[in-house]
Amino acid sequence: MPDVATLLLDCAFPPAGSVVDVAVSGGADSVGLALLVHAAQLRATVHHVNHHTRPTSDRDQEAARVVAASLSFPFVSYDVSVPSGGNFESLARAERRAVLPRGALTGHTMDDLAETMLINLFRGTGLDGLSPMVGDPTKPLLRLRRADVREMVVAAGAHFVDDESNTDEKYLRNQIRATTLPLLNDTARRDLVPLLARLAHVAGDDRAYLDELTAPLREMSIDEVSCRDLRTWPPALLRRWLRFHLRSVDAGDGEHPPSADEIDRALAVVHGDVVATQLSGGRRLQRRDQHLSLISE
Asked: What are φ and ψ of residue 259, in 5° steps?
């Protein structure tokens, strides 16, 4: 059975004594994060966001308060309301990000990484979608398995609660967790989560290298470079440059890169196949005299 000291070896925490904020929902993963933060001798404040969307929401808040008190960490709670309509998970995430301190640590594990990769694959993705969370300092538990974190929490006698919505298969992540991944494991006759995680870290290294190559190019604004010059760039660099400059405005849940289809349409403008194309967020990319311009309509 994994203990705190063993799991701590695979955590990506800052040096002992560092001041950190920790997001704790009250579930086993985030409670485990708090225990590991304490073992790493970090100076932490525990933060909990109460969305008030379930009858058990206050129970979750109390669980987070109890674990903070048991570790002698300061505790801060936030009351938010999730707007109706749209994607509930995305809206709830936006509300959390709006109140949590920037850089707050979260308890995402290797299993969350694998699930997010599959979600991205189902929607269509590239290197960025194949390496979600990789290299993110707010995700220090990406090399730990969810089951190991839970076992550690149980062995430590720490109080936690299970969010009943995590078994509701109307959410895609829960379907992947309950059905898709077990089926893939059965087909492959092995546990695929470590393989997916390894792919994520390899893709993350490739993504970081491409980002390094494109860093000087990103300093060039969308209307600064001639399309004649853009057409001479390697396709991978041109796509990443367009992805950077065509990001949507932050709506509270982070900036979003353009979809693969939007990039293809933008490339058509660069190559002169069309003179303009519509993008998400009521924007229009157009070409005039071999130069691009991005217009909000």
From this structure: -70, 165
